[in-house]
Task: structure prediction
Amino acid sequence: MSTQTALTQLSEIAERIKEMRDIMGWTVSDMAEKTEVSTDEYENFESGKADLPFTFIHKCSLAFGIELSELLEGHKTAHLSSYTVTRKGQGLETAKEDGIVIQNLAPNFRSKIAEPYWVRYEYSPKLQNHPIHLTKHSGQEFDLIIEGSLKVQIGNHVEVLNEGDSIFYNSGTPHGMIAVGGKDCLFCAVVIPGDDTKEEEIRGSIASAGNTGKLICEKFIDTDEDENGALRSIKFKNTENFNFGFDIVDEIARQYPDKLAMLHLDVNKTERRFSFRDIKHYSSQTANYFKSLGIKKGDRVMLVLKRHYQFWFAMIALHKLGAIAIPATNQLKDHDFVYRFNAAGVSAIVCTADGDTAEFAEKAAEQCDSVKTKILVGGTRCGWHDFDSEFCLFSRKFERTDDTPGGNETALMFFTSGTTGNPKMAAHSHTYALGHFVTAKYWHCCERDGLHLTISDTGWGKSLWGKLYGQWLCEGAVFVYDFDRFDASDILPMFKKYNITTFCAPPTMLRMMIKEDLARYDLSSIHHMTTAGEALNPEVSRKFSELTGLTIMEGFGQTETTLTVCNLAGTVPKLGSMGMASPQYQVDLLDPDGNPVANGEVGEICIKTSDQVPCGLFLGYYKDDEKTKECWYDGYYHTRDTAWRDEDGYFWYVSRTDDVIKSSGYRIGPFEIESVIMELPYVLECGVSAAPDPVRGQIVKASIVLTKGTEPSEELKKEIQAYVKAHTAPYKYPRMIVFRESLPKTISGKIQRNKL
Result:
């Protein structure tokens, strides 16, 4: 076909699109929205000034409700029921992306029971040393290699197929493939879809399975990896106006509208699947809704939404609108709300209807003049707006403007857990989201089309580590189960059922899991496991590894930071160690005088800021310069956590600076003792603290919760003491042991050692 002929055909297609738009009575803006492009782009397409991408033409056909062939050919193509012939190279091109070409070989055959495709994967040297990207769709698939070689992964099994080889498999199993052998691979893929499978899902799955294209977030991030895929350095760019809602969510929706963003299960196990297009539309509707209620740029809006899917709508909406999001737990009482409303100057609250949380919030709002707007999710209440029935009445379009916030402007605030005194408000900028790229890609090892589960309430910073920013930066999906009470036996079957690929949970919940008979559950879908929130007892890690074969990769960070010290992909973990410093931060261990300590010596974990403030570190404590200066001075942010570093650069957690026990001249960190005691099979939980002593100043006190069926006794105390003496320095053994039904914890689940 000549260049002139091709241009003529494109011009004719553009004319047919314009004619159909006129017939439908739609404006250019209407069509731009329906085809997920800007108004300027649409005008260039329709006028014939720009080449027409196939995806654009396809979206036009869907919008008009006519067959694609009618736009391409100008008439309705006959659908055949006896046979159809497709000549070499003349299949209907249905996908063309970086490194991938797909043609449908029977586009006009009526009532097909299978979809045949001609597929070419380009050889990519970059992909040879990286994990194969996995995807899935319901049904079955048959692949026959015509030219070249194809490396195929089905679940955990890998096969290399050469010319003439074939493979037949359940395509509902996560699968992926890359061309190997130094040249492109050409193969025929025959897909037998499931009952609920759409052709665009199949095409998307085949295309993404061999995806070599860049992540959208790479516009803002440069990384350098070694030959093992381990991260050596990371730099952030183009961040001056970065806004996660527009630059990531909406852009993914534009390029991959049907891509799964979230699989949500409510408390009744009702399933909801949200694509990125859904998130874009619902967040824009929510932004318009909030705007109609008077919420504007800079307003502080508290979100108390447990794990309701509306949380994700609201978060992205507030980013787009420029209001400041304040996630909070539903465990707050009225006095907790009063403190937080006044401290932050909260003007609006979006709250769950579950339980009595809204009642407590309402009582508090009556005492706080700043709270003007109350919005309820999942129910109705007098004096509250009904989110579920109202937000959906608003436009799905919310445009970026010249004054849309981004970059270093404040985007969200988190209240710290407040183990001592009132909680502080850690303020974060819009670029904080980018800081979690390392969290998701190199620690969680989130897969581009995988499904990640982090067990966390949306009221805590950990939810933004594992339920939003990093996972969507990696273009993966998040799994959310909106449970009321953690029950290991309830959650464990979900890994198999939903094919969860990566998993993160705090040590407390991992301890509960290993008390179950894990052998009864299929956890084979999990490719990678991580933990954070508190130090991981080595015994928990050992038991989980014995039962599942998985190594739990530990990480450390705070509400004020992103992932700071960690075991990243491509590195070899050491049991009991937090890992090494993230390349995102320069981490030093300092003594009380601010001097670096030698390897093997305990020091405070500090992040250097004198050269530049790293992406992911907080802006400071909101309206509290004094508290900010207490932890941020002399060119360092001081975490108040202590550790020691070995000769290989691995960090080993000791304690909070205010948890150190000073006994007879010794400085003793409680965590080491807790870890030893947790090795005993009859110990469920343990908290170590200081008790006053007239001779030694302080002594080690162990508060222990025993497993069901174990009776406390003086003999048991002596046994525990003897065990600790034998497994650590004798001066560290607990001279005082008390058995308790439970341990005092903060509302975030951390043990309150000052109350033991």
